[in-house]
Design a protein that fits this description.
Helix content: over 70%
Number of domains: 1
Distance between the termini: 44 Å
Number of strands: 0
Strand content: under 5%
Length: 147
């Protein structure tokens, strides 16, 4: 018996799983992008509540800052977790793009003049800190992958 006839396992050559694996990968990355987009929209609406809490007084401001710190840490951890789960830079990149696009849409003014973000300082901290958190998470994953 020759060595070539004994290697008939799945790693012996193309087994036809390539297109299926590609389709699953595309579907997974699409769902990841949509999840990040949805998280960005929900987070933006949530930031409106942070603005309300900010305007209630000193205790509200302290609670808003603590909550904001937890949310920003969760955003950073989510991008890092996506990198760990996907094993490559595309997952964190799609996560970052989806979240930032959602924030850009929410910053705009609606047809009736409605805005999601008020002029409270904590909303600006949420926007800028959130962009910083996801970008720092993305950059730290690409730097870790380059090592």
């Amino acid at each position: 018996m020759s060595a070539s006839s004994t290697s008939t396992g799945p790693s012996a050559g193309p087994s036809g799983a390539g297109p299926a694996r590609l389709a699953v990968g595309i579907a997974a990355y699409t769902l990841l992008f949509l999840a990040a987009l949805g998280t960005g929209v929900v987070g933006g609406v949530y930031a409106g509540w942070l603005g309300w809490l900010w305007m209630t007084g000193l205790v509200g401001q302290a609670l808003a800052l603590i909550t904001l710190a937890v949310v920003l840490a969760a955003l950073y951890a989510a991008v890092r977790g996506v990198h760990r789960a996907t094993g490559g830079p595309l997952g964190p990149l799609l996560c970052t793009i989806g979240w930032v696009l959602a924030q850009m849409v929410l910053v705009g003014v609606g047809a009736n003049g409605d805005v999601v973000f008020s002029a409270a300082g904590v909303n600006y901290l949420y926007l800028l800190g959130g962009v910083g958190a996801v970008m720092f998470g993305l950059l730290s994953t690409t730097r870790a992958a380059a090592r």
